[in-house]
Specification:
Helix content: 25-40%
CATH topology of the largest domain: Transposase Inhibitor Protein From Tn5, Chain A, domain 1
Structural class: alpha+beta
CATH architecture of the largest domain: Alpha-Beta Complex
Distance between the termini: 40 Å
Strand content: 15-25%
Shape: globular
Number of helices: 16
CATH superfamily of the largest domain: Transposase Inhibitor Protein From Tn5, Chain A, domain 1
Largest sheet: 9 strands, mixed
């Protein structure tokens, strides 16, 4: 590497090539003349998904923009698109945008008319190919809930953002569906400072915030951030039901609605609300002495079955009517799973208002004791796998804003980014090898593809890597999204 060296400093000429170890008789040289390159060629697919869903257009309506547009390089929708697509592509830190703003392909995905930033007000003095917003601009977007701050002129309307997530999620459901299951669950997102609402939780061994999620299958409908000391199965649950159920019934007029959750959600207020409004429920029920007193014979039968078969575990089921001494307003249907394992007895209970005889014209055995527990209630574990994707593959647990409102906005943005990826998977990857992949796998295998970007007066040409192993799948998805094949092109 040619250098000019003195006692105090070393100067490297950036235009001269770098010389690496020889490859046999060949020299290995490298320089920075490759043009504008991106590692996220799949951003083009996400752009099409967003256009089909209308997500960022709808989300932009949930903000007010008081900026003088004659001084703005980035529209509100462009800022939101940049933020959402970056999260979907795996960039969960605002500081990432210091370099992402140089990516012309991301600029194309954000619908910037000039992907190299030629139309910016200070384009003559700015660095080349800077078309997107800097981290500071996006930070002002996220902190716009401070109405008295003169520096934050984009203000979110929380109720409208909440309604946007709900409306866009419900639109993804089949309007002819006969049954919709709403899975409720809470999580604990660790905080690492003095964030507003953070409280210590022994289960997570740290200070947390406690969001409430509601999913219909893999589609998110609700993501409400709560303080860490919130009652996980009660705070905000009725409010979520009151918001979700009418919108669902407007979309899916013939569908029965079933609410499902673990024992934290088996509260009198929640069950009474469901019974009053014609909604079915199936909740776990925490064991107590009175419940356990109902199943000694059932446990004995399971124990005998295990001895006879030599299996590691055996289970038997019992159904009975039950009412608490004080908290419940009525008798309800309870199902007990009496399981005997090598480690000991493992009794479990659920409470439901689903009819044991099922529904006319359907499988009448579906909601009998054993199938209801094993096939229906235990299926709620699929939602936990979805929530793991929120944490492992998206920044759903990045609670690094100081106040609760700022972290709520981040939670909504992460959930909406997941919705984009879920639509890509459920609609456009249906029937392919990635149809059941996690969003992290989809990102790694389909969206992370090297691309060279060339911008001319008449076109933007994106040259994807010739060595990309999923070229056929990429073409298939692109055509499903409306991309047309150019006649005569390879």
């Amino acid at each position: 590497m040619p250098t000019s060296t003195s006692a105090s400093r070393t100067t490297v000429c950036p235009t001269e090539p770098l010389l690496f170890a020889d490859l046999g008789r060949r020299q290995v040289l490298a320089d920075f003349s490759g043009g504008y390159l991106s590692s996220d060629g799949g951003a083009l697919l996400l752009r099409q998904v967003d256009a089909s869903l209308g997500l960022t257009a709808r989300l932009a309506q949930a903000f007010t923009d008081a900026r003088d547009q004659s001084y703005c390089d980035h529209s509100l929708r462009e800022l939101l698109t940049q933020r959402l697509l970056a999260e979907a592509l795996g960039y969960d830190n605002l500081n990432d945008h210091a370099t992402l703003r140089l990516d012309p392909l991301l600029a194309v995905a954000c619908n910037k008319r000039e992907p190299l930033g030629a139309d910016r007000r200070q384009a003559a003095t700015a660095a080349p190919a800077v078309a997107l917003a800097a981290p500071a601009t996006l930070q002002r977007l996220e902190q716009g809930h401070r109405p008295d701050d003169r520096y934050h002129k984009i203000h979110p309307a929380p109720q409208q953002i909440e309604a946007t997530l709900l409306t866009m999620g419900v639109r993804c459901l089949d309007k002819h569906a006969r049954e919709i299951v709403l899975d409720f669950d809470a999580m604990g997102h660790l905080v690492h400072g003095l964030q507003e609402g953070g409280h210590f939780n022994a289960y997570y061994d740290g200070y947390i915030l406690s969001p409430l999620y509601v999913f219909a299958g893999a589609v998110p409908l609700w993501a409400a951030l709560r303080p860490g000391d919130a009652d996980a199965g009660f705070d905000g649950v009725i409010a979520a039901l009151e918001a979700i159920v009418p919108v669902l019934r407007q979309r899916c007029k013939k569908a029965r609605i079933i609410v499902r959750g673990d024992s934290a959600f088996a509260r009198e207020a929640t069950m009474a609300w469901c019974e009053k409004h014609g909604v079915y429920y199936c909740f776990g029920l925490a064991p107590n002495a009175r419940l356990l007193a109902q199943i000694p014979e059932t446990l004995a039968a399971a124990r005998a079955r295990r001895c006879l078969t030599g299996a590691q575990s055996a289970r038997a089921f019992k159904e009975f009517d039950y009412q608490t001494l004080n908290s419940w307003s009525r008798v309800r249907r309870v199902i007990a799973k009496a399981e005997v394992m090598a480690a000991g007895d493992n009794p479990r209970f659920i409470v439901t208002n689903l009819p044991a005889r099922g529904f006319r014209g359907e499988d009448r055995s579906r909601f009998t004791a054993a199938p209801l527990y094993e096939n229906f209630y235990c299926a709620r574990g699929d939602m936990e796998n979805v929530l793991k994707q929120q944490v492992l593959d998206l920044p759903g647990d990045r609670m690094s804003a100081h106040d609760l409102k700022g972290n709520q906005l981040r939670l909504w943005l992460a959930t909406l980014a997941y919705l984009l990826l879920e639509r890509l998977r459920n609609v456009y990857l249906r029937g392919t090898e990635l149809a059941r992949a996690t969003v992290g796998t989809i990102r790694r295998r389909l969206l992370k593809v090297a691309a060279a970007v060339r911008v001319s007066v008449r076109r933007v040409t994106v040259q994807l890597s010739s060595a990309f192993p999923l070229q056929g799948l990429f073409r298939q998805v692109a055509r499903r999204l409306g991309a047309e094949a150019v006649p005569g092109a390879p």
